[in-house]
Amino acid sequence: MTMAYFLFRTQIISKSNRSAVACAAYRSGEALYSERDGLTKKYGRRDVPPETYILAPKHAPDWVYNRERLWNEVEKVEKQHNAQLAREIIVALPTQLTNEEQTQLLLDFCKENFADEGMVADIAIHRDKKHNPHAHIMLTMRPFNEDGTWGKKRKKVNGKSVHLTNWNDKETLLKWRKNFADRINEKFKEKGINDRVSHESYEKQGIDKVPQIRLSREAYQYEQRMKREAEKQGKPYEPVTYYGKLNQEIQRINQELKALKQQEKVVSISEYQEEKSLNETIESIRKNASLNDVEKASLLLVAKRAKSYVDFAVARRVYHDLAEGNWKKKIESQQLKLRALKNVINKAYHVYQQEPKQVIQYGFHPGKFNEQLREKIAQLKEMEKSFENELTKYEAVLKKAELALEVQKRLTEEEFRVLYPHAGADFRIEEKYHAVQYFKDTGGVLPESEIPAYAAKKEQEIHRMPTFAEQTRNMYQSLFVLNRTIQKQSKERMEALKVRDFEQAFEASRKIEQCMLRKEKMSKELEENKAVLQAILSEHYGRDVSITNTAALLRLHELVERGESSKDFEADLRRIHVSEQQKLERMPKPETEAQIMEYQYRQHVADGLLEAIEEAQRANDRKKYEKDPTKKRQRRRYRGQEFER
């Protein structure tokens, strides 16, 4: 009997950095409209269309079977900025079974374990690669009431908030894994297949082996392409991605473990320190920590905000939420609003000194200017006072969160030194934290050589930072929206002035000024990012890439990153322009405001790509007709005169 491949991986889709609608669109291969940002989420067509199903409990409303509405309703009911929108489970389907048998096995499993337990299961089976059939299962996190309305996730019991379902329990996840493995093994036995799978870790199975890190789809495809190129050139293949290199290192470690096992060498923590003694020492660090009153108050504040026990990871998350989250954005928005209001008042005042009648464009009545000016200044002072109070409160909380984080760093450092008394100073605090947590969770001590890889994997599970290209694309889209907002507010100001609604005209002027300030700041950041993209592309194409259109630079960068560039600059530009134009032509006629905006953005991108092609052509023409100073001047005679050519 041989062990077959088993994969059952889970992750949480959080509102703080992801969209449930976008995730569902990507997995199902459908175009879904997102009410949260007003954009239609649509991704490229797959060679093999996904098989999609939606399973739901009997008391769920009928609209859950509409994928677009389902995930928009989820995003509406989850109000918190960092709410958990969905749980995604990714499972490998056994290749020993036919497609129909795989599908039936999966649907039976999802019905029994998810739909019958109160969850909606949005299922997408991907068969793009024959050797890698797998399924994405997106599950709702909130139960339904018997009348079909959304229920509650938690309730207070003796002053504590507890979950109303067991869906988040570790035991439940383990049960799901076991049930799926059992179903596969039952099917193997029924068909007389001499294979089996196990849901347990290598350690529990008694296998002395380090598990490898599963590569993302993009990384896997890139590694395969590099492998084929190495084979063509007759060179030994070396991994190129970060996790590909880590897996190579893990393979080397597994080979060493195998050799050690053959030599009957056993490495155990008991060889240098008793586990009980380590546990007691680790626990005493936090119990006996010497903290002053300010540090205690800071930790209490973080615990209340996180609603959980505080360690390094929790303190870091709370600090980053404060430093970069909604409260910080609210402060920045208020600050921008104040600057915009000041600017409009100042501009109106200076215009009034020169040409009083022109103040009408800022929403002031020329005959009542001084009276209106006093009102606006009083309004400004009131807003400044409110802003200062909010800023003082925010800075005090942020300072406490920063102090709590420093305390947790200090405690983590002490815990790490207990486990690794001879470790060098090369480990980052994040790596030390995950090494300590590994000991607390498993009772084992990670070898020092494995700490960076293990910590990197854990960090990836905690959060994913947007890439440089994603940040640039977000800025580009935001600038498009800002320009559109400025046009809209300019039109509203004009309409307000026609009916002499000066208050409405003033408010429109303030909004225009606020958008202009945001645009100025964002444009500077975008120019810096564009310069980086130009440098990357210039190196790739072996020529000066001086086009300034952001959409063109991003699309070219995508081609390079995916390894699909032809190395011909003009050819790549024309190809992406044709592709974008075809997408535009395939879009349905826009009807809603959001669809119109999406269509206009697509048109804007297509126009920008055409401009980039023309810009590149002009650059080529200039280069063609430039004089080459290295060539000798040639002269020709015409009627006794000499001319240069």
How many extended strands? Answer: 13
Q: Helix proportion of residues, in percent?
A: 55-70%
Major sheet description: 5 strands, antiparallel
Strand order of the largest sheet: 2-6-8-7-5
Radius of gyration: 31 Å
Total of DSSP H or I helical runs spanning 4+ residues: 19
Look at the structure and give the mean pLDDT: 81
Q: How far apart, in Å, are the first and last alpha carbons?
A: 84 Å
Oligomer: single chain
By helix and strand content, what is the structural category?
Answer: alpha+beta
Q: Which shape, going by the Cα principal axes?
A: globular
**Percent of residues in beta strands?**
5-15%
Q: Spans of 5+ residues with little confidence (pLDDT < 50)?
A: 206-210, 262-276, 628-635
Provide a short characterization of the protein structure:
By secondary structure, the protein is an alpha+beta fold. It has helices at residues 20-28, 67-77, 99-113, 170-191, 202-205, 217-232, 242-262, 275-287, 293-306, 312-324, 326-354, 369-419, 429-442, 451-462, 468-498, 502-541, 550-561, 569-586, 593-625; strands spanning 2-3, 8-14, 32-34, 39-41, 51-55, 84-92, 121-126, 134-140, 154-157, 160-163, 195-196, 635-638, 641-644.
General description of the model:
This protein has 645 residues and is α+β, with helices and mostly antiparallel strands. The protein is built from 19 helices and 13 strands. It has helices at residues 20-28, 67-77, 99-113, 170-191, 202-205, 217-232, 242-262, 275-287, 293-306, 312-324, 326-354, 369-419, 429-442, 451-462, 468-498, 502-541, 550-561, 569-586, 593-625; strands spanning 2-3, 8-14, 32-34, 39-41, 51-55, 84-92, 121-126, 134-140, 154-157, 160-163, 195-196, 635-638, 641-644. It has a 5-stranded antiparallel β-sheet with strand order 2-6-8-7-5, sandwiched between helices. It has a two-stranded parallel ribbon with strand order 1-11. Strand 3 and strand 4 form a beta hairpin. The model is unreliable at 206-210, 262-276 and 628-635 (pLDDT under 50).
